[in-house]
Amino acid sequence: RKEVEQDPGPFNVPEGATVAFNCTYSNSASQSFFWYRQDCRKEPKLLMSVYSSGNEDGRFTAQLNRASQYISLLIRDSKLSDSATYLCVVKIMDTGRRALTFGSGTRLQVQP
Amino acid sequence: GAGVSQSPSNKVTEKGKDVELRCDPISGHTALYWYRQSLGQGLEFLIYFQGNSAPDKSGLPSDRFSAERTGGSVSTLTIQRTQQEDSAVYLCASSLAVGQADFYNEQFFGPGTRLTVL
Q: CB distance A43–B55 less than 8 Å?
């Protein structure tokens, strides 16, 4: 079983739509959580960190449910420029381990 | 300021040859990470450096893979006797000093080296 699981998509949505991505993680030692965005043939870039209380950044809202080991990302009023792969990422902070663990990504295609 | 840089951007090699991939982290970032991404796959952790030491090498897939970091800055990932399954994009990332408050230190990624083994 993968440590971080995501629906690969693709999610094809019209401009202006609201779309939600979900992610589950299996390691209860996971301490911090992120959504990264990766454009085609580019490096991943941090979209937002995900805090226990949930957080919002403009059109993007992230939620964390530690009890269910579940993370979500909501994108409102989708733009064409939101088309990308969204990577769910956790950091496991047990002994000596500092790397990020990535899901395989969910591809979003926003259509005109 | 300058971001993470990697070289070469593309490398095509023949099976059995050795390759060296270079990463130049953001100045002042003491933590450095190597990942690889195979076609259509998520990122796979390879090795992590804190300064010049590597406390976590758990992701290196075989003893053909090694990495070093000198002067707390530039890192080189070496793959010996390359195999076709080594073909992937090799990504380097760096972040600020690691400590107990490291939970949300952002990792900044370089553009990657696309390795193709024929």
A: no
